[in-house]
TrEMBL record:
SMART domains: PKS_ER. Belongs to the zinc-containing alcohol dehydrogenase family. Its cofactor is Zn(2+). Signal peptide: none annotated. Keywords: Metal-binding, Oxidoreductase, Zinc. GO terms for molecular function: oxidoreductase activity; zinc ion binding. Residues 7-318 form the Enoyl reductase (ER) domain. This is Enoyl reductase (ER) domain-containing protein. SUPFAM superfamilies: GroES-like, NAD(P)-binding Rossmann-fold domains.
């Protein structure tokens, strides 16, 4: 069968690999479509580490880093109880990058890593479910502090994760949603998806008050992952900043943040968060298809990667 393989920085090719077979508790999925995860795709094609001190070895495992997938169950292993042949499913959990990934015609996944999805929704509306689950985890961290409903929430970075966060902030009852991004097109997308205000970082210069803790935002979620972005939000947020973007640098939490501000690390992926996200997709309050700005065959992966790198594409749906 065919699968994508990143063979070296800047070089990807379609290769032939042996079709996988499901083991106990697993199913074989014929992949319909996969949406890009720009962080992984851009880092791997650039030869840059996604996480500090985790080296990359090339050629990368076939099918990787594809993990936001939707497809059809074509074979069922022993012990599978909840899935059946012909069922359409979406992946909610990335099982790791040391095995065959979903940029492939067929992939094996554990039953628990998949959720049944409707047959009548387009793949763009379902494949990014794993991303939606991840963002929902950050909202759960804030909810445990009663820090969303009725609050002013800032979303730092309006890439795919930030646009999911804008929508989930509305779902979770935020009083005001402020999207922050230097790119005009991303600010427009956030406004269309429910942000009350969209601004450039330089449009909000005032910091939190060093003694009272008063600030432009009550809570914030950073979807960028850079130290300057996190620091910007910490300096302008009253109650809590939740980290979603992969932070590779240290940030300075100091005396001016001492009064009232909490800095929340990322939580743990779990099926319940995926089920909540899927429920919001099905009830129309979470539009994952809006994240996808281009669709193309997997054979055009290098072209798609270039569009991600120049920000001409926000998220790409690759179909098999």
């Amino acid at each position: 069968m065919r699968a994508l393989q990143i063979q070296a920085p800047g070089k990807a090719a379609i290769v032939e690999v042996e079709p996988p077979r499901p083991g106990s508790g697993e199913v074989l999925v014929q992949v319909e479509a996969v949406t890009s995860c720009p962080q992984w795709d851009l880092h791997l094609m650039a030869g840059e580490q996604m996480f500090p001190e985790v080296p990359i070895q090339y050629p990368y495992p076939p099918g990787q880093p594809g993990h936001e997938a939707v497809g059809t169950v074509t074979e069922v292993g022993d012990g599978v109880r909840g899935l059946r042949l012909g069922m359409r499913v979406a992946a909610w959990r990335d099982p790791g990058h040391d095995q065959l990934g979903s940029y492939a015609e067929y992939v094996v996944r554990a039953e628990d890593d998949l959720l049944p999805v409707p047959a009548d929704l387009p793949p763009e509306a379902l494949a990014p479910l794993e991303l939606a689950m991840c963002v929902q985890v950050s909202f759960e961290s804030l909810e445990r502090r009663d820090a969303i409903a009725g609050q002013r929430i800032a979303i730092g970075g309006l890439g795919p994760a930030g646009l999911v966060a804008v929508q989930l902030a509305r779902v979770h009852g935020a009083a005001e949603v402020i999207g922050i991004d230097p790119v005009a097109g991303r600010r427009r997308a956030a406004h269309e998806l429910g942000a009350d205000r969209v601004v450039r970082p330089e449009d909000l210069p005032e910091p939190r008050h060093r003694w009272t803790g008063d600030a432009p935002f009550d809570v914030a979620i950073d979807c960028v992952g850079s130290a300057p972005s996190v620091q910007y939000l910490m300096d302008r947020t009253r109650l809590a900043v939740a980290l979603f973007g992969v932070l590779r640098e240290d940030v300075a939490f100091g005396w001016k943040h001492f009064i009232g501000l909490g800095l929340l690390g990322y939580g743990e992926h779990h099926r319940g968060a995926a089920e909540v996200a899927l429920r919001h997709v099905l009830d129309g309050r979470l539009d994952l298809g809006a994240l996808v700005t281009q669709s193309m065959p997997l054979t055009d992966y290098e072209e798609g990667h270039a569009l991600l790198g120049t920000r001409e594409a926000l998220k790409i749906c690759f179909y098999l």
